[in-house]
Fold this protein.
Amino acid sequence: MRTHWQLVLVAAIVAAAVVSAVADDDNSAAFTDILDYYDNANVGPQPDGRVVVTTNQVLDPAGTHVEFPGRPNDCAFSPDGSIIAVADAWGGRVLIVDGATGAERQSIALEGDVPGYSGIVFSADGQRLFVSGSRNLIWRLVRGADGSWALEEAMYLGDHVTPVGISWSRDDERLLVCFNRLNQVVAIDPASGEVLQTAEVGVAPFAAVEGPGGKIYVTNWGGRLPVAGDVTEPSGNAGQVVVDPFTRVASLGSVSIVDSARFEETGQIEVGLHPCEMALSPDDKTLYVACANSDVIHVIDTATDDVRDTIDVKPIRELPFGCAPNAVALAPNGATLYASLGTNNAIAVISTRTGVVRGYVPVGWYPGGLDVSPDGRSIAACNIKGIGSRNPVDPKGFNSHHYLGSLSLLETTSVVRTLGSLTRRTLENNRMTAALAHLGPPRPGIAPVPLPERHGEPSTLEHVIYIIKENRTYDQVLGDMPEGNGDPALCQYGEEISPNHHALAREFALLDNFYCCGTLSADGHQWTDSGYATDYIEKGFRGWPRSYPYDGGDAMAYSPGGFIWDNALSHGKTVRVYGEFVQAHIQSGATWSDFYKDWLEGTSEFEVTATPKIDSLEGLICPTFIGFPQTVPDVYRVREFLREYHQFLAEDRLPNLMILLLPCDHFSGSATLPTIPAQMADNDYALGQIVEAVSRSKAWAKTAIFVTEDDPQNGIDHVDGRRTLGYVISPYTPRGTVVSKNYNQTSMLKTMELILGLPPMTQLDLLASPMEACFGDRADLRPYRAKEPNIPLDTMPEATAMDPRTRAWWDLYCAQPFDQEDIGDEMTLNLCLWHLTHGPDVPYPIYEYGRVDQIEEYEQFVEAHPHLFEPIT
């Protein structure tokens, strides 16, 4: 077996690095350097037509780029190439678009369901379409005489099967479908929906292709089934998976071989991590397997079932993990293989004769599905995140769930003709031309500075405190600060409620252009902890078929680059974790008021303990500091943190990296919890207490505190739905400044890595902009004094004078399911939070900031709850 590196391309990259990033564009006058272009821009569409997204990347899609609300996971050309079917996992629908222009022809809702991870296929005559649901259905659509499509009765396949990766048997008589949660591949009668045959395969099968010699090939995301002696972790609600003993991340991938006659597994081929889509050559001799978590495509000889070649798709050999090849498609003549690189926002163009990547084509944000037209003239790529969280109707404001997905249509002749310039655009959009400088080794003799230029160079700082909070946009909290780019009309938890958030922004630095990379807690905690969201995560929206991995519990959700605590430990640093990825154990019957009383009186009458949800945290967590639920106030959590902090100081063993989860700005509702403003005030005061204690300690001169939200959830912001709170608090922070550089969570992780002398975990934290504007050369050791809350933290709803409608809003809020994070109805939660903060008579700004479908949802809510909107008489 040989591995192909892109040696020639590396030289081309070096040469291209000296070329202006926008030299070929007519609209390049405003920005002549790609780094300045990004670093000084707000997220979103730019004057020259590009789009800046929240991962330090720029989008400049080639070909025809069609945007639409939703998150498309998969797509397929019809047999005649006239139309493309697109599975929209967020919108719960199938789109039928024109095969030449991408124009929408029809939208068909999958009632009560959403498309799953992958799986959409036409019948050979083009008259029927089969689409995987997220749980237990395959949807059947039939084409009418007028060309329109209609739903037929769906195939019910059994509870909790998660059908994925539909393909046809070689005789076009059976559908081959992977049952992802059951570790099975099945053959189904397309007419009756009956499961005809079942074979046990590996962990989490994803795609099935019938090859020559009566063999069916099945990719297994999690590799072979565990055996005695393996180190395993749970994969959500679907059993165990073999993991790396240190990081506890899924560590195997395989392709099962199933005898199509006996329908039994006869063997497995070991491949890279997270094998996804496959493509079989026209002559049946070669099978191509995309492995999203290894950045490779394996080339399998179907005669011997050996891995003959391995194609590394990274544009630069030295880059760490992070391309995410998740789908492949062959030209009809078999000469060219196309691979969608999710994280690189690109399509790799590969010669099948040489196994060399010839170049890259820029598309939209996170391509996840790929197909080539039957005549080979067009390529279709569905971009799961499209252009980000943008409102296609009204540009006044956004929330993070304004998903605007897209479809890229590429003419193959144009791709061949312009591949050189397209490759350069791809590299520049991903900041790869700048990566070479960051890949250099530490320089000898470099004096320590607060923020070193290269990974591994010395810093004057030795301790990092990383605080992760929950679910607020910038405008929701700091929109009332005139110093920054805020919208007071959208501020819900302003200075009266959050005096410490405001004081810290004024006394240190106000970051008004800082973004979450994710949108909700399932991907948000992956971004905060590892600087990456895997293909598994990106394709899990909205159905979350296997898990909603906000607090661990699913080894296949984690980045193969590991977590920031793994990175620190493996490079000789000490770590302590408070509340992140832990399971809470709370004394039966204990309430929020009990723990608040314990905090007030300095007692510990009521027991609360934490155990790790992921074994790599064993021995690292504080046993009395929990994350969720919100039965415990944040000030109690901080008391437990400070108890250890002062003990560590006294013993001169303060950890290098301390990670804290302060979740009470997530909010929850019940008769035993405080009001929403009081919950925010609790979170605010807890944050202030941490900064005060640290800034008055002997370690202050060598400490930096970083604060972010894990995600913005569904809050509204006038710049972008992912703009959020970000703080850098250290003696070297330029006091009283407004920092409008474009930073995000990978920027924050990169900055922490530079301070602690750690290497990058993935391409995204390598290529991120370090937060240089947040550090000066001279230390200012003035301590911070926490601001006392303006609202009693124990303000309870029964003690609060509420008019009848406000009380009704509170009752509705308390009725939501808060036993797990982020599972309540978003419209209901947002309306409750808005009216519980602003009062029942201040209109929710849905008509100013809402998408068409959200406006419709709002109007349906109003119709169903008229008593909440009737004026008080």
